[in-house]
Amino acid sequence: MQIHHLMTMLTIVFLLAAFGAACGRAGETDWRGEIAIDGSSTVLPISQAVAEEFIRERGSARISIGQSGTGGGFQKFCSGDIDISNASRSIKDDEIALCEENGIEPVELSVANDGLSVVVNPDNDWVDCLTVGQIRSIWQPEDPVQRWSDLDPSWPDEEIRLYGPGTDSGTFDYFTDVIVGEEGASRSDYNASEDDNVIIQGVEGDEDALGYFGFAYYIENQDRLKALGIDNGEGCVMPTEKTIRSGEYAPLSRPLFIYVYGRDLGEQSQPATDTATVDGGPSLLMAYLEYYLTDGQDILPFVGYVPLEDEQYREQLQKITASASTR
After folding, report:
1. Alpha-carbon distance 113 to 313, whole Å?
2. Per-residue pLDDT tens over the stretch 221-251
3. Cβ contacts of residue 204 below 8 Å, gap of 6+?
4. Which segments in the chain show pLDDT lower than 50?
5. Which of 23, 33, 197, 256 is the most exposed place for a label (fewest CB within 10 A)?
6. Quick one: pLDDT at residue 14?
């Protein structure tokens, strides 16, 4: 399955003809309506792939997906402008306060596991693994190392040119927290972008570059980049589905989320985009979420992410069922 990652605001519309939908899914609900999603570029490929398959199998609907970063997504979500917020970190207290001001009850749903990947140019033949301390010394805001030879005298006496997510990114928040030791603490003299493709292109085009982003983007571009192992004190560990799922790839393994309005999960809900209901039944939003947490998990390996355990998905389904039943 091919996933396209576009720069800045990405809007993907999946619209099936009514004739094809009726012929292809006899006896199933032909869902119609609209859902608006925005937020993390890391979670974007998951929501995009799930939306594509949901529409193909279940009905004709319009699903628009943006990538303004986790922080940007929460701003829109808590202002009531979108139905789902993709997030590569948990919602912050000030974002919860904004939601509360607007009468929005956020429900957090875990959807996958990810492992932040530290990458270099494939022509880099002097480093295969970095310790957490070495990575910290590269990215720390105070007196960071500037040259490869600062890390090891046998390495080239060349400047390390850095690429990474912007400050609105949940990936930035998570990386700075677990590597530097304080969320948001980072040197500022690096090439920052909310679009992971910009980071990929920067590292690919510079032998002395180093960057970081989600595991799925590395998997999709592994012929263009070289991933480094991480030594957290117990030896070098490469990012793989197995090491991410087990947590062995530490400290850069992390959960990924989507957030929805608790008030929009009941039968008579009216989300921000006026999501349709069928014969008074569950909303399109509810149907999409149920698909996301069931059939959608089978899609994750194809887009480079690590599924949760079955029990974890059942717990997420119980969350939305409980929220819907209280509306």
Report:
1. 12
2. 999 999 999 999 989 999 999 999 999 999 9
3. 121, 122, 221, 224, 225
4. 1-27, 267-281
5. 23
6. 35
The segment(s) of the chain belonging to CATH 3.40.190.10 are: 18-112+256-325, 117-251
Helical residues (DSSP H) of 59-192, grouped into ranges: 69-78, 93-101, 132-139, 148-151, 170-175
Residue 296 C-beta-side C-alpha neighbours within 13 Å = 26
> Six-digit token pair at 60?
């004709």
Long-range Cβ contacts of 197-200 (<8 Å, 24+ apart): 197/5, 197/7, 198/7, 198/163, 199/163, 199/164, 199/165, 200/224, 200/225
Residue carrying the six token digits 């530290």: 118
Q: Is 257 helix (H, G, I), strand (E, B) or coil?
A: strand
Predicted TM-score (pTM) above 0.90: no
Q: Which CATH superfamily is domain 18-112+256-325 in?
A: Periplasmic binding protein-like II (3.40.190.10)
Please give the CATH number for the structural domain made up of 117-251: 3.40.190.10
pLDDT of the residue at 30? 66
Mean pLDDT score across all residues of the chain: 85
Of 318, 317, 284, nearest in space to 83 by CA: 284
d(CA 215, CA 234): 21
How many H-runs (helices) and E-runs (strands) does the chain carry?
Answer: 12, 13
Q: How far apart are the first and last CA of the chain?
A: 37
- Predicted local distance difference test score (pLDDT) of residue 76: 97
User: For 304-327, how does the pLDDT look when each residue is reduced to its tens digit (9 = 90+)?
Assistant: 899 998 999 999 999 988 876 665
Residue corresponding to tokens 């679009």: 195
Residue whose entry in the numeric block shows the structure tokens 């609209």: 34
